[in-house]
Amino acid sequence: MPVHRPGSPTRPHRSAAPRRSRKPVIAVLLTVLSLLLAFPATAQAAEDVPPRGSAHMGMGVVEHDGEGPLPPDSPRAAVQTEGVDVSSHQGNVNWASLWSSGVKWAYVKATEGTYYKNPYFAQQYNGSYNVGMIRGAYHFATPDTTSGAAQADYFVNNGGGWSRDGKTLPGALDIEWNPYGNQCYGKSQAGMVSWIWDFVNRYKTRTGRYPVIYTATSWWKTCTGNYSGFAANHPLWIARYNSTPGELPAGWGYYTMWQYTSSGPIVGDHNKFNGAYDRLQALANG
């Protein structure tokens, strides 16, 4: 207790006011700050999602697998036959120039999901055929939208069929990173394998041919668990932008086609068929 000294003024006693806690204010400020920081990222992420139908072969290869030097041209290398794949991104293609440059085969995007048809399909599919190329159609799979069988039907009904004319390759299933969301389309590995079987079985029933499977090894490992069951009957089209195709998905001892670059000298993604022209003809004839 303080002692009062004579002659010194007496100070009135002040009761201590209760201190207001700063915790609620700090919490509010942190919440506002987090919202401000999150909003641009969310907006940017939404802007990065491309419109439905714009997907094409190899869309995620550089982002996920990287890109290396192009394969060297060497007379000691195995005989391979140059090809391209195109979609609506290429518009009307100058097929005569590609043929003159040594391109002998082509794949053209026909469909995606059950909601998109390539508006340039007729020019690209018929144009490549008319200059002498062996050509085929491909389907960009969206396993999160409809069943494999429904998408196989949509593909066959809109340009993805096959005929034994010596100039038509079996249809190709483009199964790779999802440009619109979750890379495995929200499916488990078993669910993805089941969806692919649903597609390839319906395609075989409709056309009499096993479709080509286009994919990348890293995606295949992640989204199918490196399933090996398709290798027995389905030609592999491997995507890897490097000097070698690298490791192949389980079960396949060799690739049939290799997409090695997305920056071709004239147009589209460029590919190598693993064999001479007569082997390409054999694949077309079934």
Automatic annotation (TrEMBL):
Q: What spans are recorded as compositionally biased (Basic residues)?
A: 11-20
Give the EC class as a word.
Answer: hydrolase
- Cross-referenced Pfam families, in alphabetical order? Glyco_hydro_25
Q: Which reaction does it catalyse?
A: Hydrolysis of (1->4)-beta-linkages between N-acetylmuramic acid and N-acetyl-D-glucosamine residues in a peptidoglycan and between N-acetyl-D-glucosamine residues in chitodextrins
What are the boundaries of the region Disordered?
1-20
Please provide the record's keywords in A-Z order: Glycosidase, Hydrolase, Signal
Q: What is its EC number?
A: 3.2.1.17
Signal sequence, renumbered to the chain? 1-45
Keyword DNA repair attributed = no
**Does the keyword field hold Hydrolase?**
yes
This protein's source sits in the domain of life called Bacteria
**Which PROSITE patterns does this one have?**
GLYCOSYL_HYDROL_F25_1, GLYCOSYL_HYDROL_F25_2
Per the record, the similarity remark reads: Belongs to the glycosyl hydrolase 25 family.
Concerning PANTHER family, the annotation shows: LYSOZYME
What's the protein here called?
Lysozyme
Q: Which organism is it from?
A: Streptomyces luteolus
